[in-house]
């Protein structure tokens, strides 16, 4: 794939790094908040030489419930149904080539700058891949009005939002997860909401809102956790979710335990390409061999909402048509 190296002869590609009359601070770009991967189940035993498809099995509840017994009759027999989720493992990566002249003459450490920008790109790219699976749930919820919301379970939002996320909508979504018997994410009975700035901004206006530092020790908080409302913990992110659903009402996902599976064959790592052209041309890259897949009620084969099996969405996507 054609690309252009970081070079000394073009200012924007490296030449500006020669600034003897200025300080040596390197001003970096604004970094998005990346928050989805911390909530994935990690499966890291998908080894090499096993193909590019990873599988995970899902068990239904018993097809026939138990009950009272007649003393002279045998105990009834039942069974459960196995469902199978599949995830296709892909290569992920990016690289930055640069010249020896740039590395030698630059006023700051080019190698260090390349590593930092690559690691940021890795985090942003892989978190987007995880987020796409959280958004892939069949359960879609629309904040139709301040005290009216609509839930669909066919993967399509059919209404346009005209309200921010608020206490009414959070209560309705969390109560639905409880009705579906979705286990809370943490051991204190809380679900988790990852939302855009505008989505969570609407929730913060509630008189029931509790700031994160008022209810938990810092080491117990999720990354960038903002607060809690009605048994749901809130995390802000700026990498994927929209602030303009329905116009200006934001986007969020609310979920419990076992939401998305992360498959790791080769963990993401930074690699250095052997120098070429007698050491004049260098390259550093990040690389990983991974996959993500929603566990319940996404696009796996036969993965429909089915109460008789106990199969229900573990994620509700707050969005808009």
Report on this structure:
The protein is of the alpha+beta class and 321 residues long. It has a domain at 136-259 and 314-318: hypothetical protein PF0899 fold, CATH 3.30.2320. It has four helices and 14 strands. It has helices spanning 100-105, 110-134, 167-179, 197-204; strands at residues 41-43, 53-59, 82-88, 90-99, 140-145, 148-152, 191-195, 210-211, 225-229, 232-236, 252-255, 260-276, 281-294, 315-318.
What form results from the Cα inertia axes?
globular
Q: Span from first to last CA?
A: 37 Å
Helix content: 10-25%
- CATH level 1 name of the domain at 136-259 and 314-318: Alpha Beta
Total beta-strand segments: 14
Q: Nearest-angstrom radius of gyration?
A: 24 Å
Strand content: 25-35%
SSE-based structural type: alpha+beta
Task: List the main descriptive attributes of the protein structure presented here.
321 residues, alpha+beta, hypothetical protein PF0899 fold, 8-stranded mixed beta sheet, 4-stranded mixed beta sheet, 4 helices, globular
Brief synopsis:
The protein has 321 residues and is of the alpha+beta class.
Secondary-structure map:
Blueprint: E1 41-43, E2 53-59, E3 82-88, E4 90-99, H1 100-105, H2 110-134, E5 140-145, E6 148-152, H3 167-179, E7 191-195, H4 197-204, E8 210-211, E9 225-229, E10 232-236, E11 252-255, E12 260-276, E13 281-294, E14 315-318
Parallel strand pairs: 1-12, 5-14, 7-10
Antiparallel strand pairs: 2-3, 4-13, 5-6, 7-11, 8-9, 9-10, 11-14, 12-13
């Amino acid at each position: 794939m054609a690309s252009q190296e970081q070079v000394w002869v073009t200012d924007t590609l490296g030449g500006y790094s020669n600034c003897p009359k200025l300080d040596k601070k390197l001003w970096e770009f604004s970094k998005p908040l990346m928050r989805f991967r911390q909530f994935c189940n990690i499966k890291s035993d998908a080894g090499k030489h096993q193909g590019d498809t990873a599988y995970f099995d899902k068990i239904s509840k018993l097809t026939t419930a138990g009950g009272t017994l007649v003393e002279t009759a045998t105990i009834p027999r039942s069974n459960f149904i196995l469902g199978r989720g599949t995830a296709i493992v892909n290569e992920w990566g990016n690289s930055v080539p640069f010249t020896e002249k740039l590395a030698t003459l630059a006023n700051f450490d080019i190698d260090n700058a390349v590593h930092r920008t690559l690691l940021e790109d890795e985090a942003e790219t892989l978190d987007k891949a995880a987020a796409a699976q959280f958004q892939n749930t069949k359960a879609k919820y629309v904040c139709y009005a301040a005290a009216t919301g609509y839930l669909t379970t066919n993967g399509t939002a059919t209404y346009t939002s005209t309200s921010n996320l608020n206490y009414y909508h959070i209560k309705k979504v969390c109560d639905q997860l409880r009705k579906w018997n979705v286990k809370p994410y943490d051991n204190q009975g809380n679900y988790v909401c990852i939302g855009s700035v505008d989505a969570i901004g609407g929730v913060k206006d509630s008189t029931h809102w509790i700031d994160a530092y008022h209810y938990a020790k810092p080491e117990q908080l999720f990354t960038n956790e903002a607060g809690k409302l009605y048994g749901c913990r809130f995390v802000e992110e700026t990498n994927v979710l929209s602030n303009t659903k329905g116009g200006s009402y934001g986007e969020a996902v609310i979920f419990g335990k076992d939401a998305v599976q992360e498959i790791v064959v080769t963990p993401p790592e930074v690699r250095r390409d052997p120098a070429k052209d007698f050491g004049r041309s260098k390259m550093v890259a990040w690389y990983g061999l991974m996959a993500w897949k929603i566990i319940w009620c996404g696009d796996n084969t036969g993965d429909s909402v089915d109460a008789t099996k106990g199969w229900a969405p573990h994620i509700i996507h707050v969005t808009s048509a």
